[in-house]
Amino acid sequence: MAEAEDPKTVGGEPQTRDLVSLALQALQRWSLGPGPSPEPEGAPEASVPASDPAQAAVIAAQAEGQGRDQPLPSTLPTAAEDDPIARYRQKIEEFDADREAPIGKGVRLLLLTTGYVAPVCCAALLGWEFGELFGKGDFFFSTALHVLSLSGELIIAGLALATAWSLKRVGSDRHLLPRAVLCGALFLVASIGSATALWWALSASPIPPIVLAFRVLVPILIEVGGMAVVATLDFQSLEAFLAGLHRRAEAIQRLSEAELRLKAAEQEAANRQREYEEYRLMRARNEEVLLKMLEIQSRGALAALERQVKVIESEAVQPALPPAQPQQSKTEELPPVKEAPSWSLLTSQQAWNPRGHQART
């Protein structure tokens, strides 16, 4: 007869049955655990005790693949040209509200050049004309008058440009306002004096009044127009520049917030995908553990059947023995104890048997 196995061994039926039941419970709990799955929603979450052997086996199986997680898709390097956020950021940084076409830039540059050069040229021509009109006579007197008239007209042109520059910077620096007012007043006085002198010099000549008025007013209009062109077209405001920077920074900030939200959504989707993959891997490992438990149970049941078959075969081979007779315990038989005769019987015997009575006495 085969020796009986210890039920605490792996092939024993009690331990096998316990392990299988624990594996079934663990598989059911893990299948209903958290994580995205194709199963219907609303399944209750169940936690497995830490002392559960089946859970310990599952955790040991999971520990093998903890260091083999793939990197998240959001952490993979992406090409800069395929990133719309980078393109939008580049567009915002390159955006300029005052940007104009190349032809506009060319025309503005030409007008600015004219605004700077025309007053100076007009002042030079007007000064030379004053020298020619009033410098008749001695060479020294004529030369001095030419120099003085040229210097005066150039100073008037300089006052026009100084007024324009001061007006450009008054918006950012209020301390330049007195200078702008002073330059404007001097330019106005000098221009009126120059126009009056020119009108007085040309009034004696036979020139039509319209031509005379045009000849007197055109230099002043050129200088004032140049001043306006320089002050307007070449104007750069610090406040406007700072406002543009603020708008650009705000746009970049909004774009960065949108980028962060997009990355958070990608990270969340990647985490859900990873949790789902881990959940599927967990279920596969749980099923593997369950199959191992079922295999152990099958082996235990097969071993139990083999033991029973061996017991039956061993009983069939042995010959049949007669039934054992019950053994009686040998006890010593004691002689019966005679009871002592009572007094009434003794007296009666003595009464009816006097011989015996006499013999006893």
UniProtKB/TrEMBL annotation:
Low complexity: compositionally biased ranges: 43-65
Protein name: Uncharacterized protein
Alphabetically ordered keywords of this record: Coiled coil, Membrane, Transmembrane, Transmembrane helix
Transmembrane segments: 109-128, 140-164, 176-200, 212-233
Segments of this protein annotated with the region Disordered: 28-80, 318-361
The organism's place on the tree of life at top rank: Bacteria
Coiled coil: 248-282
Protein species of origin: Thermogemmatispora argillosa
